[in-house]
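Review form for a predicted model. The reviewer records the input and the model, then writes brief findings.
Reviewer: anonymous (R2)
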Amino acid sequence: MQEAKFGIFVHWGVFSVPAFSTEWFWERWEPDNAFGAYVNKTERPGFTYQEYAPRFDASLYDPKQWTELFSNAGAQYVVLTSKHHEGFCNWDSRAAVPSTWNWNAMDIGPHRDIVGDLASVVKTEVSPFTQKTLRWGIYHSLYEWFNPDFLADKAAKFSTSVFRDRKTMPELYDLVKKYEPELLWSDGPGGAPDSYWRAPEFLAWYTTNSSVAKTAVWNDRWGKRGNGAYVSGHDRYRPGKLLSYKWEMALTIGDSWGFDRNATYESYRSTQTLVHLLIETVAFGGNMLLNVGPRHD
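Model under review:
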């Protein structure tokens, strides 16, 4: 990853169906705000967020085409959302995490392994610029906005760990064992302390005993900042100076990480701006992880 410099981030999930303003749609949806007004205008009375899932069909999803596009754009690594804060799993999580029944890409929506299909292609794609194979990474949210187990642990001030033990950790082990990501891009912590997530124990396994231990890299959003192999900081992290440690700027082309139907041409960063940011980032010792948010199909 030290020499990668430029990567592509992909935010894709059920939030890509409403595609209204932000991938945080579900969390921000209230009856009397703009999100509620959008639902009232476009859906039947009593509509629930879960009903968006069947429409996340990925019918035009072509992992090979995506990968070639990313590679030809100069990307040296690709990071795909396996699960965002809404909890929907973009892989076949059913055996490892039974509680994801009917809230995963195999049971509903695409009916295919979104993560696995892209992983198999990215890991064999050779960059036309460096003649090296692209590196494969996975984004994973530690917490979930409305998962009952997480909310129960939170209500107990995280003195219980049902959600972590039954959901988060089984998911992480499953993702690494199945898809062998050389980069794990964690997101959270959802208000929970480091002691709740017990990330050091998992990361010790990932970096010593997993199949990708020799090349494993991980960001620093595992609870307390500073647990990473490099600094990803806050969204659109831009220190503006040379740092003594490895860092990464993850940023969006527009305002939203997920596809936004309301985006305008003016809301997107220009090619000139993006190239300038890439040059600045690399000059100051960082990597640039540029996000794209595909449509639901």
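Findings: The CA atoms of residues 237 and 249 lie 5 Å apart.
Further findings: The first strand starts at residue 6 and ends at 10.
Recommendation: see findings above.
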